[in-house]
Amino acid sequence: MAKFRKWLRLRRLVFILTLTVVIIGAYTWLISNLAWRADLRATRSLEEISSPGPGDRVLIVAPHPDDETLGCAGLVQQALARGAEVHVVTLTNGDAAELSLIFGERELPWNPSGFIALGRKRQAESMRVLRGLGLPETRAYYLGFPNNGLTALWRPEHWPYSHLYRSPRTAVTLSPYAHTLTPHAPYCGQQVLSDLMAVLQQVRPNVVFVTHPQDIHPDHWATCCFLRYALETIAIRGGDWAERVNVYGYLVHWPQYPAPRRVAPKLGIVPPAELAGQSRMWVRLPLSRTEEQRKLRAIRAYHSQEPAIDRLMLAFVRRDEVFELLSKTTMRVGAWQTWRDEASHRRGLGGAEVRELRLEVTPAGVMRAMLVTSSPPLVREAYIAVDVRGWDRHASPVITTVYIRAGDVANAIRLNATEVPSLAVVARRLGPGCLEIAQIPLPRDAEPWHDFFVTCWGSVRDRATDPAVVAPVQLLRPGDNAASQ
What we know:
single chain; 485 residues; alpha/beta; six-stranded mixed sheet; 10 helices; 27% strand; globular
């Protein structure tokens, strides 16, 4: 009798656990489908575009191996079939993807060599996938920078060659990979900029596809920052062709994206409603059934990414691919420019949310900024960075970054090619969650300072969150006309 009661309790426990799993699965499926339908209702019909063709030179920029396939495998096939010249550059080898190594390789790395081996494996997978899509090996470039380290390289602390970044996974400050554009590439922002400019100058693309500036993966939005800043730098130095490049963003990481989160090749892919407002320029590229199947095989060829392949990656196999045409922001001297981020509360930024950023460039050549952050405002271990980048009269990068913690300036850095001096910049609290930063200096000898690049992001401890702003800006004086871009 006792054994029977024990068996009955066990059956009851198994039933409860099974029912819990079913309920959770059904809830996840329902939320995913409702999110997709809500985005579909909120998003206007997207304009169809044709893939690049004869005479076009296409560059696809990816942070990690597999991103180019998730976002652009159909585009690659169509562009090559139509006679376009396609190139792919990958900034990292994906050597810090701990989950893929744990679940794919079935072993936990315990030393840097395990992560470096993963990086070599992912690079080899990328080469095979791109060959399978029809891309010649000579048109694939690998830069070998650290996975999960691109935001660190974008920040001024690790921009110069004198302040190299050490990867916490591979424990190196130079690229350990043999197949890279620059052998033993130093881990710093200047080298990323130099390598991207070298690829751009060699390819001279007229259209570029890069991870979206609002992608919530820090490596992804940092990749967009580096790419667009490299194009602007080439243009500032006299490369007129760089000003005419069309830049499109493709999204990989966003909550409940793609929706529904499952294999659904008969459905279209819909940009998140928060990123598809009236001012956005999203377009779609229809794919044939054959192109879908080749994309499916290409994604499955990334064996190191199991089990994420079925959970997330195959959700990108849809009847189309979507991109946003990215353009410059125009602002005038003496007038405020406002960026709002209504969706920041959805993305788990904790105490580092940026709800609104307002910038003004004064006739005296300095900048004022006003920030609206989450309420309550920042805590001690979280901060906001306002990063303004331009070029001096010799077209060398000049960076001013202001870090704000708990309503005060915790650190302010101005960086050029040779020094990292501190700045005496003070923030003033205007109210709960509202800060003003005055007298942010712009590059010296800029007369007038027409173009700059602004980013604004949050960090919790050492973890950078997705940005509120990533924007190349064209600054206009009274009487100037807006850019045609």
